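Entry 14. Structure prediction run on the chain below.
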Amino acid sequence: MIAYMQSWTPRRLTPQDLPLCLDLAVDRGWGPEEARWKLLLSIGEGWGLDDPSGGLAASVLLTRFPPDLAVIGMMLVRQSQGRKGLGRCLLEHVLAAVGSSLVFLYATELGQPLYERLGFETCETIVRHIGCWNTPEPPHSPGMRTLTASDFDAVAALDRESFGGDRSRLLSGLVAIADRAVVLERGGAISSYGFVWRNLNHMQLGPIVAPNHEAAQLVIQSLAHGHESPLRLDVSNHSSELLAWVRNRGLAPLRSVPLMTLNGTRMPGDRTRLIATATLATG
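Output returned:
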């Protein structure tokens, strides 16, 4: 057996471990994204390795979307504990736990080589954008309105069709923290939806689901309007026209992020309708 497996034992993380998770994130140069960690620890399975000197040496989060999807996120290893196999230890632990589920993740540049060694392959990309919205008033759009409690089941069903798994728990968590949530009706039915919520010093737009880039533009404009803080939008690379439209309104592209699946398995659902992710740790 490999040595690190004898001395490092993964344990379940709980919401009480939030300060340790934030400390680990800061150690790796990430922001202390309290809202995101709280959400993920409440809907997913957090796993960590304790550092003998205190705090967490490494973390990973596994979120399951019934019936058979699972996403890996928040894969972090403390700088002082690097190159000891801790990342591989945690990843192999969660991969053993998911069974036959289709497993995917969004890869950082540092993590991608490890993911590739474990059999993950890139199947598509998203493009991270950040900036201040430069378009004053959003155009009036018939059918655009605030999401209400009575809309939730329809929104969750639309999301399942697009995503290919049940994200009801994620959507419920976002409803609780959203600054704004909207739906767009067409033909008497909800065709699109979107959320915007605060994460540190910026507003995160997503998830956003829409049938085409015209509807996506209406949802994005409705969510982006009126915020003084910078906006972050992790938008699908499906439509070059939509990407250009976003950039013309003040959101600058930072980098492309690969979506990787274990063994290159094709993602389910209608991916063309998935305009923006909620977070890279959930899709």
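The chain has two domains: 3-100, 128-276.
Filed with the rest of this week's runs.
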